[in-house]
Amino acid sequence: EQTNCDLFSVYGFHLGLFTLFRSYSFLQNKNDGYRTLPLSGHVGFGSLPDQLVKKSIKQGFCFNILCIGETGSGKSTLINSLFNTTFDDPVSSHFLPSVKLRAQTYELQEANVLLKLTIVNTVGFGDQINKENSYQPIVDYIDAQFEAYLQEELKIKRSLFSYHDTRIHVCLYFISPTGHSLKTLDLLAMKSLDSKVNIIPIIGKADSISKTELQKFKNKIMSELVSNGVQIYQFPTDDETISKINTIMNGHLPFAVVGSTEEVRIGNKMVRARQYPWGIVQVENENHCDFVKLREMLICTNMEDLREQTHARHYELYRRCRLEEMGFRDIGPENKPVSLQEAYEAKRHEFYLELQRKEEEMRQQFVQRVKEKEAILKEAEQKVHAKFEERMLALQEVKLKLEKKKKVLEDEIAMFVEKKANAEVLQSQPSVSTPLLSLKKDKDRKKYVLMLVIRGSKKKFLHISLL
Amino acid sequence: MEPEEHSMEPPATPEEEMPLTAAPGPAGCQLFGYVGIEAVLDQMKVKTMKMGFEFNIMVVGQSGLGKSTMVNTLFKSKVSRKASQPGQEERIPKTVQLQSVTHVIEEKGVKMKLTVTDTPGFGDQINNENCWDPIIKYINEQYERYLREEILITRKRKIPDTRVHGCVYFVMVVPPWGGGHGGHAGVMVVLGRLRPLDLEFMRRLSKIVNVVPVIAKADTLTLEERAEFKQRIQEDLKTHAISVYPQEDFDQDPDDRALNDRIREKIPFAVVGADQEHQVNGKRVLGRKTKWGIIEVENPAHCEFPLLQDLLIRSHLQDLKDITHNVHYESYRVRRLNESNRPELSSPNGLPGKGEGGSDL
Q: Considering CB atoms only, which of A37, A161, A348 is closest to B103?
């Protein structure tokens, strides 16, 4: 017994030493190997977190929420209930041809905290007959916000300090309260968004499902999400102060919420509620729906974590992919780290060469086009010339012909005039009254008849008259 | 937290990101019930406390001015070892050498990684030309290190910050009996003003880092002499356009300006450092014991050490870090990234899209 006790105590002693050593080295690791100095008095940097908070208050906070859900799933009502105000959001129709996103920014103030809240609503989600391109506009929008931030960060002279951050910090995905399972569109949309944004699935208009159905519905949804590999946002459990409540909340996902813009009198208070003939559904009653849980998780407990995850995980992933796409690498071809300078210069040079090449191309094209146009014009000119020549020739011919005809006509006229003159001369000679009475006159008469006959013939006229 | 009546600001100027038009929001909504936006402040506090803080401070001044004692008093712990310990040889280095020592200190659950950079050999040579070069090189190196980390494709979640957040410059008190007033022919004594070395150093460094000048070993000055000395120093700084911390250009709003103006009136602080405790009026205080009395370091009537401590740690520590990050680091980055716009690289057409506002890519 004695030896057993000794062994046990020795063992215990070693165990104690071991744990002590382990905890010490753990502490060492925490401090990156630096010595921890004891303070011999009050220094005052315990106020550092307060200094930081004071600065942040002055700067203000940004929070951007994206609501995805079919038309009429209760998105706007829920947002109004969450922030206890009425944001103006016109009701949209079911007949929009494609999904569009509508963003509105509001400034809310509570105590001394200024919050710049941006709500982005999807309009027309799930309304089309062909829903293939339903979620692409959403992905594009999220990427566009990341891109804007990245461009600002890459500028030479930048002002990140005063940049209005529009990156989406949380995506509330509204699931229709069918009670059965997720729709294909839901799965596809969430799958394409889970690596870009923190997704919190929500069952909207949950007052249409009974309690037992609700639990089955929730389980079905979660198992479907898990089996399809969709990574929704998990509330962080690494901080002791909030890990317990966050773990509980993680088990309640997806939150079944009811929103209302109307107030009903219950007892002596006015609360947000929906009044039915069979009872009143109170929005802020935890037995009725998970609204309070959602508000707590989203705003009171995890807003900062959502913002941090967006910046440290989703944005970094986007940035990495984008820079690699652009051709930047951290390690050069010989496995040596590429310096920033060289990378930038190489890229700049590349772009410059590209630009020159494009310019050259365009110049060539321009010259080409000019040449072509010139050729066409020349051809046309030639054609016109040819026509002109033709017409001139034709004109000449016609002119000649006309001249000839004119000459012929003139000749005829001249002959006619002559004949006319001669006839007049003959008529003016002593006139024979009865050329039939005398023989002499017979001869004359013959001559006269002869002359009459011959008068018709031009050529022999002169000849006969001499007779 | 109890539900209170708050009036919400009306939704102001809705902005558009995608083409559908939005009507302006309704005015003045009454809210009942508590939303909980304030809680984000607590969340932030918890996160930053978990992450811990980093603070890097540099002390510059001739040897024997009490730099190490000052730092130890400031942080109430043996952060730097004094150069002249009994039994150790005192060596004056041939060139300015920078020594950085890092410790972790904790107070009220807040962990701070403190790095103190000492500069032995500064101003100790006969020819002190360019003794500020190693210091400037060190500061720029830290900026470069941060820049490289920031530019990586896969970068760390938290980039280690080794940039110098504040540089405390120890100004030597020129004893009023050092050779008469004014300028006697042949005797070059600068009475009660900043020496050329001080001016030169502060001028160069205030452009790249926050400089906090302090009058070292101020227990040799009477109150009137102290006021006069300060006045002259302030004039000198103004004449040479040296902007020391808190810089006037970075006051963000009237409250800041009022607060900082009060501090600027008292710059440079006259400090006395001590690391030994003595008994005064039944209390144990840090002080220097002399034959004619005990100078209490933390007594505002005796010296301005509490003011310095307040400025550096209690009220403006975060501000020092912010100005270093938002102003000095950014201007370093601009200079560095513009360096590659060398003229021989560009053709006669010039590189497209260059300039201060354009994106690099």
A: A37
